[in-house]
């Protein structure tokens, strides 16, 4: 019997795929879940039980959390990447990591097929298909939901016919949880005007008292939280646990899909948004204006290309090398205040702070040049533009 590796989450789409691939296609199903830091140990156990209850031959958990940080998230922080100035690529970056891990797993067990539960409307189908085509071109791709053009109601009905109960109420919202944020899709995000109701958000707002936290960065990486040096992955996870109950980082992203249609998705991503804003503030104190300018341009391309699944393009390694090099002086502490639905960057402390009173105080005085120096500089600095206006009579 031919083997198929199924990218499995335990949700509606991949539950359908389990039954369909074994019962209708006659394949030996090997489910695999790629943990990118969004699952607790108990959740992983429950997902494994569900996979076996659905009749898979084997189920595996591949923990990619550290790799995900090392090869993706680190550079999103370095680049202060927010897609359309809003979205921290919570799912986009994760899917690339997951697709790569699943391709490697299919290779490892010698599968003839690989399957995923993407529909025909979104970005994931392109990310998964493309990465599989690049890394495992000899393995055939099966996409039951896309190929059969199924609605969620039809999937639920199919599962019921095969004795699998699925709560239609729970299926109202599609939730994807990872270390870099949780996405939320539902009927409201299919419109241009509705917003998600309070009950749709996975984390209820329970924290109301103001709280200050200190994030310490070392060469651009968040290494400590409130003085506890726990490393970047733990900083992200612990900051998320502290800040998400404030309702910080909730928003709806409107973007262009890879296949050219507009889409909306809700997300909650307290830690990513706080870290990106904190890191950017530290950079504004420690980098020169042209470092900041070129970083912005390259990081925008990097984020867009990652969003479109193109992490295996060698140009991404080139940009990563540039981003890494810019972080040599991005070390110090950033002080943040948390309040319900908002956060404030209070300020920073760094031995690399270029805003030093040794060189003068902005708007008041300086210690490096005289007023006469500035008069001469101003004439020279505008000289070519001045000549253009004289020559062209403007």
TrEMBL record:
The keyword Nucleotide-binding applies. GO terms for cellular component: cytoplasm. It holds the Pfam family Arginosuc_synth. Pathway: Amino-acid biosynthesis; L-arginine biosynthesis; L-arginine from L-ornithine and carbamoyl phosphate: step 2/3. GO terms for molecular function: argininosuccinate synthase activity; ATP binding. It is an enzyme of class 6 (ligase). InterPro entries: Arginosuc_syn_C, Arginosuc_syn_N, Arginosuc_synth, Arginosuc_synth_CS, Arginosuc_synth_type_1_subfam, AS_cat/multimer_dom_body, Rossmann-like_a/b/a_fold. Its EC number is 6.3.4.5. Keywords: Amino-acid biosynthesis, Arginine biosynthesis, ATP-binding, Ligase, Nucleotide-binding. Residues 3-165 form the Arginosuccinate synthase-like N-terminal domain. One of its GO terms (biological process) is L-arginine biosynthetic process. Residues 173-386 form the Arginosuccinate synthase C-terminal domain. PANTHER family: ARGININOSUCCINATE SYNTHASE. This is argininosuccinate synthase. It comes from Parapedobacter indicus.
